[in-house]
Amino acid sequence: MSEVPAPATDPWKGLRGVMAGTLILEAIVVLLALPVVAAVGGGVTWLSGTYLVVLAILMVLGAGLQRKPWAIPYNLGLQVLLLAGTFIHIAIGVTALVFIAVWAFILVLRADVRRRMDAGLLPSQRMQRSS
Description:
131 residues; mainly alpha; 76% helix
């Protein structure tokens, strides 16, 4: 019975980069929502402004934490916090739904990489087997 060889390159490195990039993009979008809330939502209060800025800071900090084993729960927790921002303005809630869909797709990609790695179907694993 032969074991599946470990990949020569780290397949999770690229996925961590995608997750970090998504969090940075999400933080930018959250900060760009501040003028929308100010213009359309009746103004930015200290509560809504602080909530959105702190959430954006947590997203930027989270981008650097993607190597941690608890990064996925942290990322999903941020999505729950963003969805809770619907109380600030409905546009924040719509933004949250869009990013929840993005994170759901990232989780599908993660499961696919794990399945392929376990089956030995990653390109770096196939090259090792043929050598």
